[in-house]
């Protein structure tokens, strides 16, 4: 299954024309997503921006991730739970590789348990397209392997960016 990850950091009101274009692209990406991973940091308290952005995505298929559990806790988990209601919540530490298995299971269950409704179904029969999809799958696997091996996330992002460029 092809996977495309889009970082939508920075969705906020702005007067800067370049930022406005980026915000619009992020909003478009959110509207087209089959699944949204809403990432919060354990070492940062919830902000009004977090609440506002969650309001935008709350009716979509969402998994909330509280990352950086290895750092001092400044986020109020009960406040997060109040904000997200029944939305799945996973606590992770990418640095210590904690919570990743739970996240993978949650994503797999949502996709293969039938809860995520694909917005469109595409069938690939062209051999060139199949080859490109296989290349993309390999670069994603490379990114997963790198992350599991403790490679810095900046380097993992290179593999993910390479997938996007295929």
From TrEMBL:
Name of this protein: tRNA (5-carboxymethylaminomethyl-2-thiouridylate) synthase
Superkingdom of origin: Bacteria
Q: Name one GO biological process term.
A: tRNA methylation
> What does the record give as the organism's lineage?
Bacteria, Bacillati, Bacillota, Bacilli, Bacillales
PANTHER family linked: TRNA MODIFICATION GTPASE GTPBP3 (PTHR42714), TRNA MODIFICATION GTPASE GTPBP3, MITOCHONDRIAL (PTHR42714:SF2)
EC number, UniProt record? 3.6.5.-
Give the UniProt keywords, A-Z.
GTP-binding, Hydrolase, Nucleotide-binding
Record flagged with keyword Plastid: no
Hydrolase among the record's keywords? Answer: yes
Q: What class of enzyme is it?
A: hydrolase
Q: Which InterPro entries match?
A: MnmE_dom2, MnmE_helical, P-loop_NTPase, Small_GTP-bd
Gene3D superfamilies this protein is in?
P-loop containing nucleotide triphosphate hydrolases (3.40.50.300), tRNA modification GTPase MnmE domain 2 (1.20.120.430)
Q: What is the organism field in this record?
A: Staphylococcus aureus
Instruction: Please list the residue ranges annotated as the MnmE helical domain.
Output: 24-165
For molecular function, the Gene Ontology terms on record are:
GTP binding; hydrolase activity
Name a GO CC annotation attached to this entry. Answer: cytosol
């Amino acid at each position: 299954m092809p996977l495309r990850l889009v970082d939508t950091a920075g969705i906020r009101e702005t007067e800067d024309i370049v930022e406005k274009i980026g915000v619009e692209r992020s909003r478009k990406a959110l509207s087209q997503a089959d699944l949204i991973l809403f990432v919060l940091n354990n070492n940062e308290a919830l902000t009004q921006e977090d609440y506002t952005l969650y309001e935008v995505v709350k009716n979509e298929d969402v998994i909330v991730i509280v990352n950086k559990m290895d750092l001092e806790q400044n986020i109020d988990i009960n406040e997060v739970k109040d904000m997200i209601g029944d939305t799945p919540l996973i606590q992770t530490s990418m640095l210590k590789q904690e919570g990743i298995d739970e996240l993978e299971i949650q994503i797999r269950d949502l996709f293969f348990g039938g809860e995520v409704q694909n917005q469109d179904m595409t069938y690939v029969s062209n051999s060139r397209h199949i080859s490109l999809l296989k290349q993309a799958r390999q670069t994603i696997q490379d990114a997963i392997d790198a992350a599991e091996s403790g490679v810095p996330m900046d380097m993992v992002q290179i593999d993910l960016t390479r997938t996007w460029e295929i």
